[in-house]
Amino acid sequence: MINCEQLTGVVTDYMEGRLGLRLRFEMVMHMAMCPPCRAYVQQMRLTARLAAAAPVEPADAAVAAKVEQALRPGGGDG
User: Fold this and answer.
1) Mean pLDDT value of segment 35-52
2) Within a domain: 16
């Protein structure tokens, strides 16, 4: 049976329907017996819905350039 730590590692795959039948079954059974994990998965679902519904505004060119620079190897300050 899947444990709490394992559940948190595969919750995104579960929500996106990418788990096999056995692991999906184990997730459902675990959530039925574990209120904290059930709440965690519900919170993840809510977060995903809110993020999908949030408006996206393009960053201005200066911000985009700074982000691109920071993502380059050796480009960040830390």
Assistant:
1) 97
2) yes
